[in-house]
Specification:
Blueprint (H helix, E strand, L loop, with lengths): L4 E3 L2 E4 L4 E6 L10 E6 L6 E6 L6 E3 L7 E6 L4 E6 L8 E9 L10 E4 L3 E6 L1
Length: 124
Amino acid sequence: QVEMVESGGGLVQAGGSLRLSCAAPTLHFDGDEMGWFRQALGKEREGVSCTSWDGAHIYYANSVKGRFTISKDNGNKTLYLQMNSLKPEDTAMYFCASGGKCSARIRASDFGYWGQGTQVTVSS
């Protein structure tokens, strides 16, 4: 059974930073393409960033480019999302995903396994 557990969310003021983690001890991980998605209240889930298995190909949503950084620690089987210069519009539940294909479209439908999510709230 695939287990992925996100952590690191919380309440932060605009301009602040958070680092999300996604521990995936049951995944093979080395060969997995993975991504981060978010879903704000009343909105559809949207792609934030994804990475190929080796980090050679990384994509970001335009809304987070230059502020967020995705990274993959294969040794610790953990996916990270460093979020800087946070804005109120970044407020959402953030999910990590695996079991799929990372592309420039960063589509939720391209991934099969999901964590439970971690809430990020950015106050103005």
